[in-house]
Write a structure and sequence with these properties.
The structure holds two protein chains of two kinds. By secondary structure, chain A is an alpha+beta fold. In chain A, 17% of the residues lie in helices and 40% in strands. Chain A has a nine-stranded antiparallel beta sheet, with helices on one face. An eight-stranded antiparallel beta sheet of chain A has the order 2-3-4-5-6-11-17-15. Chain A is globular. Chain A starts with a helix and ends with a strand. By secondary structure, chain B is mainly β. Chain B has one domain: Immunoglobulin-like. Chain B is built from no helices and eight strands. In chain B, strands 1-2-8-4-5-6-7-3 form an eight-stranded mixed beta sheet, with no helix packed on it. In chain B, strand 4 and strand 5 form a beta hairpin. The chains are: A alpha+beta, B mainly beta. At the A-B interface, strand 1, helix 4, strand 19 and strand 20 of A face strand 1, strand 2, strand 3 and strand 7 of B.
Chain lengths: 299, 107
């Protein structure tokens, strides 16, 4: 009975999600932890003939791939632009603004602002698909992948302002140390997960939405054990997260292209929200050069 | 967990995970942990044979859904446009001992 019920749910979800756009993923090998990075660490590396390629050379190589698993960031002043993600990073404060996913060449706004209190990065860099800003105790990573992954680790307080188009639904992960929200707009659906953090939220956005969005919302509520929708008008929502040294926060959307089946990706997102995925890696080979990158979860 | 990757494009990818020096307290007592690896078709040509997944030298069987992998003995794979994603269970001691993962395609 339970099995049949699950199959029915999956079928409904698969149909409902056909109208959503999303998908793609990341790459390659041989890089150690960044200086000052926390135990939870994201990494990028290359191996093979082009293991010593420059950022521009990697970008040229990856741009020749249709639906690459990840892109390569380009930084110009404060602006950081990738195949799937774009944002502005302020050098002095590390504040990210206009955090958007790129879907069909159009920027889909997700976060208006990501600000870390008293954060003065001593290092800010891009390497392959990874953006990294750290002061040695707190680190922010952004991944140029179809999921628009943002990962922060370490001791700090983060204030996130969501785009007004987003609706937030608070989830109930089975992991007692985790808090999670589903964030949905007409173009992007993702989860924001906090591990070991203190959270204050005032999330707004369009209420309901009907149709596909409502179905997805209902499905997520069922998947994650129910939740409460925080409705708003056209105002941005905010989340304040205070993380201890062992804390982490991650935003990960469903892929903005359709590289993988939605039902499988949603099920993986459930594991991510419960923080039971130790890490996620993408490996891609272009012209005899294998590139990989990893997002570390629970470690 | 710091990864290191080696690849023989078309046939094999090996991933070595080194445990963190400090294990967050939140990890203590957590249930089965998973690792997800997406591989494009240039790295592993799935159309050229059957995928074999080894973790610490032991071959995992292929599960039919993500529900099948929670006992730690099976992996689940799903394919997309030009890539495949493998979800595999990690050993219980993955936070304290290195983990070796090998994905290979053969006849």
């Amino acid at each position: 009975m339970i099995y049949l019920h699950k199959r029915t749910i999956w079928s409904l979800i698969a149909v409902a999600l056909l109208a959503l756009a999303v998908s793609a993923f990341p790459i390659s090998a041989q890089t150690g932890p960044s200086p000052g990075a926390m135990p939870a660490n994201d990494a990028f590396g290359t191996t093979g003939e082009g293991a010593d390629m420059s950022q521009d050379e990697m970008m040229d190589a990856v741009q020749s791939v249709k639906d690459p698993l990840f892109g390569i960031f380009e930084q110009s002043g404060d602006q950081v632009t990738g195949e799937y993600v774009s944002f502005s990073a302020e050098q002095q404060s590390g504040m990210l603004s206009d955090y958007s996913l790129m879907k069909d060449g159009q920027a889909v706004p997700v976060f208006s602002e990501v600000r870390v209190m008293d954060f003065q990065p001593t290092e800010m860099s891009v390497e392959g698909p990874l953006f990294n800003a750290t002061d040695g105790e707190f680190t922010m990573f952004v991944h140029d992948n179809p999921y628009g992954t943002m990962h922060v680790v370490g001791n700090g307080t983060v204030n996130i302002m969501t785009d007004p188009s987003l609706t937030a639904v608070e989830m109930q992960p089975s992991n007692p140390n985790a808090s999670a929200w589903m964030l949905t707009s007409g173009n992007v659906t993702g989860v924001l997960v906090v591990l070991n953090g203190e959270v204050q939220s005032s999330l707004g956005g369009e209420s309901g939405g009907g149709g596909i969005m409502e179905q997805i919302t209902n499905w997520f509520q069922g998947l994650f054990g129910g939740g409460s929708e925080e409705e708003g008008s056209d105002q941005a929502g905010s989340i304040n997260v205070t993380l201890p040294a062992e804390g982490s926060m991650m935003f990960r959307a469903l892929p903005v292209n359709d590289a993988f089946p939605k039902a499988d990706e949603l099920r993986l997102a459930q594991h991510l929200a419960n923080w039971t995925v130790e890490g996620e890696m993408a490996v891609m080979t272009v012209d005899s050069t294998t590139m990989w990158y990893a997002t570390e979860g629970a470690s | 967990m710091t990864p290191e990757v080696q690849a023989q494009p078309g046939t094999e990818v090996s991933v070595n995970l080194t445990p963190p020096e400090q294990v967050p307290s939140a990890m203590a007592g957590m249930g089965q942990m998973f690792y997800a690896i997406a591989v494009d078709q240039n790295t592993l040509d799935m159309s050229n044979g059957t995928l074999t997944v080894m973790v610490n030298g032991e071959e995992l069987s292929e599960g039919q859904s993500m529900d099948d992998i929670s006992d730690g003995s099976s992996f689940f794979m799903y394919e997309g446009k030009n890539a495949a994603k493998v979800i595999l269970p990690l050993p219980q001691n993955a936070t304290s001992e290195p983990v070796s993962i090998t994905l290979s395609v053969g006849q």
